[in-house]
Amino acid sequence: MTIRLAVLLSGSGSTLQNLIDRITGKTLDAQISCVIASRKDAYGLVRADKAAIPSYAVPRTDYSTQKDFNAAIWEHLGRHEVDLIVLAGFMHLLEVPPAFANRIMNVHPALIPAFCGHKMYGNHVHKAVLAYGAKITGATVHFVDSLYDHGPIILQDSVPVTPEDTVESLANRVQALERELYPKAIALYAAGRLSVDGRVVHILPE
Predict the structure, then answer these.
(1) Which of 168, 90, 91 shows the shortest CA–CA distance to 129?
(2) Could you report the per-residue pLDDT of 119-141, keeping only the tens digit for each?
(3) Residues 19 and 89 placed together within one structural domain of the fold
(4) Is residue 69 included in any domain, yes or no?
C-alpha cells in the first residue's frame, strides 16, 4: 500500500528532494500529498512546484501566536489525505493532536539525546559537536511529541568525527546518513513494522 505523506519544511527542501527522488526511482513506495513551508521564500516550495505537488506557504511571522500558526498548518493538512507527516527542516514546534500521535516523524542531525533541543538545528548542531570534542555523531529519526527532539526514537546511526573535520565536512557526512535513514523509517512505518511502547520503538519482523 502506498503511504501518503505531508512534508513540512522551512528552508531549501533537500530532504523533500531526497524523498521525491526515491519515490520517482521506485525505492520508496509513497506519495507526497502536500508540502507546507513556514516561509514564503523557502526553496522547498519551488521543488514541490517542479514535482507538481500541492504546496502552501504558511509564514510563522503572519501569526501572533504559536497556537494560531499551528491552526493554520492543520487547516491545510486537513484538505489532504495524509497517513504520515514528515518534518524536513521544519523550524517550529508542531502541536500534535491525538489523532496524529506517532504519525509525525522528524530527523535530527545528531544522536539524540545529545546535541538536541530548541535552537539546536542545522550547522548549530555540528558546531556544538566539534566544540565539545565528540568522537562520533550521527542522525536520529524519531516520532514527534510536544517537545523539541524528544519523541520516541525510531532509528539512529553514527558517523565518526575526525580531527580534520569542519562544520561543512561533518554536515555533509551526517546529511548523507539522513538521506538513508529517513526513507528507511518511512518504509518501516508504511509496512506496519513499528510498534511504540512508551519511549521504546520496536521494529517488528517482516
Answers:
(1) 168
(2) 899 999 999 999 999 999 999 99
(3) yes
(4) yes
The identity of residue 31, as a single letter, is Q
| Sheet with strand 30-37: strands edge to edge | 55-57, 30-37, 3-9, 84-87, 104-108, 136-143, 153-160, 200-203, 194-197
Task: Provide the 3-class DSSP secondary structure of residue 60.
Answer: helix
Active site residues: 108
Could you tell me the residue range of the domain that residue 165 belongs to? 107-140+154-193
Residue in the structure block whose three cell numbers are 535530527: 108
pLDDT above 90 (res 1): no
The count of domains in the chain is: 2
pLDDT tens digits for range 40-49: 999 999 999 9
Size of the chain, expressed as the number of residues it contains: 206
Give the tens place of pLDDT for each residue, 190-203.
Answer: 999 999 999 999 99
Looking up residue 43, the CATH number of its domain turns out to be 3.40.50.170
131, HSE (Cβ side, Cα atoms, 13 Å): 7
Same domain, yes or no: 80 and 111: no
Q: What is the DSSP string of 184-206?
A: HHHHHHHTT-EEEETTEEEE---
